[in-house]
Amino acid sequence: MSSPAVSNVVLVHGGFVDGSGWQPVYDRLTRDGYRVSVVQNPTLSLDGDVEATRLVLDRQDGPAILVGHSYGGAVISEAGNHPRVAALVYIAAFAPDKGESVNTLIADPPPGAPVPPILPPVDGFLFLDREKFSASFAGDLPAAQAAFLADSQVPWGVGALGGTVNEPAWRSKPSWYLVATDDRMIPPPAQRAMSERTGSTVVEVAGSHAIYISQPDAVADLIKRAAAGS
Fold first, then answer.
1. Beta strand 8-12 with 64-69: parallel, antiparallel or unpaired?
2. 8-27 pLDDT tens trace
3. Could you state, in chain order, the average pLDDT of each consecutive group of 10 residues for the chain (230 residues)?
4. Residue 130, in any domain of the structure
5. Is 7 left (phi over 0), alpha (psi -120 to 50) or beta?
6. In 10 A of CB 131, how many CB atoms?
């Protein structure tokens, strides 16, 4: 196999989960010769998660593809301005513009869109309703795996949802976007609208919001395309 144009990949997870969910994608990329780093962003504040991502980018030995799932898309939209970032890949992710936050992007959902089962905040943190987690977040995963994700939720800080992007990296760097067509957390029409606005190269794949776990081949393939095209 010829060497990709960019061989470093940095993966950023979203809300309610941690970086371990990237392992299926990590395994496929490392098997094909990529050097992959996973950011364990705390999801307490957007600024903090951007800084955690920058720390990992600082450690790269060359240009990198920066990948974000869900809320991780907001993180990479800001952190992607790092000089080592060659391209951005959004996986069923938010892609805010300047001055936007996750809160502003979810304020006006498409008509008839499913409502994510987010429980009222407690002490500044959010959880998904455990009983509704599978159907909303992980509908195409085995029941036991979805239950594990529900029971290992990471509290998502309200402040992270309100953090605004100052300089969206997708305005100056190439981007790719995977739309999860069965997503019940971020409606597919919203994903399509964001991917169109960013000017991303788009693929659509049947899968839930947890598509990075359920369809790792498709996710890894898009990251490889970004690496080859950067």
1. parallel
2. 999 999 999 999 999 999 99
3. 76 98 98 98 98 98 98 98 98 98 91 92 97 97 98 97 98 98 96 97 98 98 94
4. no
5. alpha
6. 9
Q: Closest Cα to residue 71, out of 185, 220, 214, 199? A: 185
* Alpha carbons 92 and 194: distance in angstroms, whole number: 10
Q: Give residue-wise pLDDT tens across range 111-154.
A: 888 999 999 999 999 999 999 999 999 999 999 999 999 999 99
Could you give the CA distance from residue 86 to residue 157 in angstroms, rounded to a whole number? 29
Largest separation between any pair of C-alpha atoms in the chain = 51
Contact 219, 203 (CB under 8 A): no
CA distances from 87 to 7, 67, 97, 148, 179 (A): 12, 9, 17, 32, 17
Query: The domain spanning residue 193 has which CATH number?
Result: 3.40.50.1820
Is residue 125 a part of any domain in this protein?
no
The domain tally of the chain equals: 1
Side chain identity, residue 185: M
